[in-house]
C-alpha cells in the first residue's frame, strides 16, 4: 500500500464530506426534536 497524493486528496475529501453529513444530521436531529417532527414521521 503506497500513499499517493491523489489518495490523500480522496481521504481529505471523504473526511470533509463525512463532517458535513454528520453536521447536517446533527442539525436536522436537533431541529426535529425541537418541533417534534421525528414523532410525527415515525
Automatic annotation (TrEMBL):
Superkingdom of the source species: Bacteria
Protein name per Swiss-Prot or TrEMBL: Uncharacterized protein
Taxonomic lineage from the root: Bacteria, Pseudomonadati, Pseudomonadota, Betaproteobacteria, Burkholderiales
